[in-house]
Design brief:
Layout: H1 4-8, H2 18-23, E1 56-62, E2 68-77, E3 86-95, E4 101-107, E5 113-119, E6 125-135, E7 140-143, E8 145-150, E9 156-162, E10 171-175, E11 181-186, H3 187-204, H4 209-215, H5 227-238, H6 251-271
Antiparallel strand pairs: 1-2, 2-3, 3-4, 4-5, 5-6, 6-7, 6-8, 8-9, 9-10, 10-11
């Protein structure tokens, strides 16, 4: 048995040996070894049973007339440490009394994106949304990708785009029911202009090494010796300046100072090595 990967450092799912991954309890299943000298009958193979915690549950409900009303498929996530038991949504469909699917959720296993589609009674798409699910247990999520609304005739009503942070980006548009454009805004252009203005103001700010340390909260004569220490203090200083926590219009100016101070300190540390 080779343990060279353990001796060298971190384990790797592709590079480490099977034995290492079993010892570390990364692999919790037995290695499947089958002798094919006498042939193989799949019906007799009981060497690789499924785990119970991978089982999917589907709930089905019907209208009084017998048509579908609500279907939901989920996977039960067992309690883990302080985390309670939860139902991890896979698919959910809502039907009207005539049996037409009006709302469709799909949250594929192994990926963090949940899609939602809403339909008109004529089965044309009414709206479509995409979410990035940060936590499968609490279903905390943020908007991502393209979000669109449609008129009942099929024409696009609104089109919005969200970046990985859940912030509007790119061109967002609104249309009249005849397809003519009523409103459009290029958010990325605005961001680029503001970013250039911020960096220009920061670059003009001339502060000494001691002033930079003081701006980040280091004591008199105290100069940090590690970049990690600078970054930790920088993040701490930034938190109270977030617009959700600080309505002060001068917060942006203070952030310019903090950002410039971090740059000065990091440049000093990189030059002293």
């Amino acid at each position: 048995m080779a343990l060279q990967t353990v001796a060298q450092g971190a384990l790797d799912l592709q590079k480490s040996s099977c034995e290492e991954l079993q010892i570390a309890r990364v692999y919790t299943r037995h290695q499947t070894q089958i002798c094919l000298a006498s042939g193989y009958n799949s019906g007799d193979d009981d060497s690789d049973e499924d785990e119970e915690d991978g089982k999917l549950v589907t709930e089905r409900y019907y209208h009084d007339n017998g048509n579908k009303r609500f279907f939901k498929t989920y996977q039960i996530l067992p309690a883990k440490g302080s985390l309670p038991r939860a139902e991890r949504l896979i698919e959910e469909k809502h039907f009207d009394v005539s049996g037409v699917c009006r709302v469709d959720y799909h949250f594929g296993l192994g990926q963090p994106y949940l899609s939602r589609k809403h339909f008109y009674e004529n089965q044309r798409l009414k709206s479509e949304q995409l979410f990035f699910v940060e936590d499968e247990r609490t279903m905390k999520a943020r908007k991502v990708g393209y979000w669109r609304e449609y008129y009942e005739g099929g024409n696009t009503k609104t089109e919005k785009q969200y970046d990985a942070n859940g912030i509007r980006t790119g061109f967002c548009k609104r249309y009249a029911d005849d397809g003519s454009l009523e409103w459009v805004k290029d958010y990325t252009k605005d961001y680029i202009e503001r970013l250039a203005e911020f960096n220009a103001q920061r670059g003009k700010l001339d502060i000494s090494l001691e002033e930079a340390a003081a701006l980040l909260g280091f004591g008199p004569g105290q100069i940090p010796t590690e970049a990690g220490e600078v970054d930790r203090v920088y993040r701490k200083r930034c938190m109270p300046l977030h617009p959700d926590k600080c309505p002060d219009p001068d917060a942006n100016e203070r952030f310019i100072e903090v950002s410039r101070a971090r740059e000065v300190l990091l440049k000093h540390l990189s030059g002293s090595k």
